[in-house]
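thread: overnight batch results

M.L. [08:02]
morning all. the overnight job finished for the chain we discussed friday. pasting input first so we're all looking at the same thing
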Amino acid sequence: MARIQGYTLAELLAALAVAGSLALAATPGLASLNADLRRTAALTELLSALEAARRLAASGGSPVTVCVTGPLARCARAGGGFSVFPSGPASPARLQRSLAPTQTLSLNRDNLVFAVGGRSATPATITLCDRLAPGAGRAIIVSRSARARVSEQDPAGDAVACPASGH
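M.L. [08:03]
and the structure it wrote out:
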């Protein structure tokens, strides 16, 4: 009589247990990777918006304002999105974006204005925090010459501080 080849139930269960353990061990790494990708996407989008605002101010003949948007898409010191619009009475937003629900932005002033000619009126720091990665905040520092850069440190050289709640 020929013997049937295959795996026993015990062998299959052992293999399944090993595969499950490996998947469980990889989960924190995947969550961290997802948070990194989400942060990078938000930083790239905000840097692009800042560069567009600088170029619009340089070529448009009027100042351009960038602000963090809070509830009801109004300018605020902290919120979940940002707006870029020409300065002036009742100017409509040219660009308005919301971040992922776990992310917040904060600005160290009411708004950031790029003056005619493409120079920012005052230096500013925009902080990006994600409540799913509280130790991984980043600062976008806009210099007097209207250039933006990303840093893991604030302008004073300290690590970017994000509140535990992400707000």
